[in-house]
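Chain X:
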Amino acid sequence: MLPTFVIGLREGLEAALIVGIIAAFLRQQGRRDLLRWVWLGVGAAVLLCVAVGVTLEAVSSNLPQRQQEGLETVVGVLAVGMVTYMVVWMRQHSRELKSQLEGLAAAAIGAGEATGGGGATSGEGVDGDGDEGARSRAGRAMVFMAFLAVLREGFETVVFLLAAFNESGSSVDAGIGALAGILLAVLLGYGIYRGGVRLNLSKFFRATGIVLVLVAAGLVVTALHTAHEAGWLNVGQSSTVDLTWLVQPGSVQSALLTGMLGIQDHPVLIEVIGWLAYLVPIGLYVAWPPNRKLARRTLIRVTSGAAAVGALAAVVLVLVAPAAPATASISAQRTGSEVHDGLATDVYTSSRTGTGTGTASADRPTRLTYAQVAALNGGRLPLGVRAQDTNTSVGVQYTDKTVVTLWVEPRTGRIIDKRSTETVLATLTGTQVGTVPLDNPVTSTTSTLQAATVDSAVAAARHDLDSIDRRSALLSGAWILGSIAAVALLILLGLLAKRPAAPIS
């Protein structure tokens, strides 16, 4: 709810300020007759933005899963681009926004009157028609100004809210937050228009800009995740750190951290890099006081220090990272997954069948009486076999079938448990109906690993998992620090290449 509230408040207040400044200027100029044109432009822009939002949502909901993920990625990228442009532009122009809008409004009124005056050649009636034409042209200009102002903010709001809705766990909460933010923005805009509310717009937009940068950084993570789900991005998918202790699913803390900051419980490498690569530079730019300038020498010191520290820290993390544990090669077929002895494992199965090759069939008689056959077959002869004398013998051929089941921890490749089942099947030969298999197996034996061996394998797998997680986290940190060092080095080279102009003697 909080991210969509901030989006609605920030975007709604920008639109309300623009419309309010235009309306206040017209009131000061005694041109209240043009206000209805302003409201007409506002209404048309709002209706168009709502139609665009409903259309995008309908198109997204009717797409297959992978195409939905792709559309969410596109919407997320557009939202990040729009919010970045918005906060940067407002930081640069919030001070002179009022004077610029008043100038545009005055120019629109002046252009309409000048055109209307040019059409009056002689006669009072013609002058009246010219005044009416001037008002009409000025009205159309006001419609156009208000329409474009609200349309721009409305499009940004629609795209940004769609991306935030996709990221939010509850559409109802997100919708309530957005509506509350927009209503508060309208009330503030009306208060500013009437003169009863005074805001330091520069500080307001800088503070809300910081919040929106945090939200946009979360959208970067979401866009990278949906891009992977859509099959567009398959690099950097190695796990980094386990943050389930911080981001507990279903908790208020998780909703704030994931909804506001985009922090996931199991972030992958590309998501961490994208989050930091967006948040650090854009956040510093928006949060930095506009009147405080950094000296070139200070920038050189800061960037050179960041490059050196980042590179050194990256090297240290690589050196202290544990070696990757050796993984076993499994030559069986994966048949499923299950939790085995407290660990999530993959189940592999292999089978081998041979005639008279198993230990269970060794030294078994090759001929049996029909009475012995009936005893092996559950007290009856196989279907179709008849015996006039139960003491008459018949030929028997044995087939051994061995099925081996392995439980393997997937990330380490360690075999946690093993079960081997050897089954002996018998087939009668030389009967009056030819070759006939017995219905029941002759024997079936199962062997498993001892409990102590399984416990030892589970402990070793847990140790390897801890090593893998530490190695992944340290190498991810090294990659991130190395990237920061590389960026700082590029900035440093740019500062050194841009030498200050020599003084004129």
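Chain Y:
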Amino acid sequence: MLVKTFGSAVYGIEAITITIEVNISGGSKPFYLIVGLPDNAVRESMQRVEAALQTNNFRMPRQKIIVNMAPADIRKEGSAYDLPIAIGILASSGQVENENLDKYIIMGELSLDGGLQPIKGALPIAIQARKDGFKGFILPKQNAREAAIVNDLEVYGVENIKEVAGFFNGKVQLEAEIVNTREEFYKSLTTYDSDFSEVRGQENIKRALEIAAAGGHNVILIGPPGAGKTMLARRLPSILPPLSLYESLETTKIHSVAGKLAASDALVTTRPFRSPHHTISDLNVLKWNNFN
């Protein structure tokens, strides 16, 4: 029986909807095959899926199972396809009703006990799911808040595969995650861990940073270790203009794809600061000298 579930692939900070086709046919020996340019993590998903299904008292068909991930010319990476593949196998084998599968994007990495691990890129996936007209998005509970900032999309955070199977069988009622995007945005718009007002002395460099922040100029800080370069740079975002909602969404998408967004956060509302390794300047100089 052929069944289709839907997932998503993230490229850069944008997402593409992936159709996951599962077909179970006759055969005297179990045979599993995943096609559609999967990487090693995707190929290994069948072992995780089989263990998770057996642990949760589901039946893993001992037949020929073909999984096709379309479009087939786009490379599929990561372990977040475990859940849609597992639900596709359950639906194709008659253990889960398939009439509502086409209304939801499903993503999540399975543990061997059936629990779900967080995924990367939940926000761009949710944005694309709304564009493509899906009713909802089912994903690990740790990622529910970041996906829920997308309006007009039902976001369900789940903890294990039993909840998902029960939801499609009509035996479990999932509660949609609701986030007020504007309230979340304005709540901590100017809340920084380090503030520019904490700097004592350093009047000349403080004045230079204030002018740079006001005019939108670049700044280079040069000095010996311990002079306060990183300390000042870390506090520079606190005197920059606040992020707009659009900028906040774009920044959150980057953090989401990188897996740097905490489960309690829905939006990145403050300007980020990245501190490179203290040897990065020396390495760049060495590379430049070798190049020349």
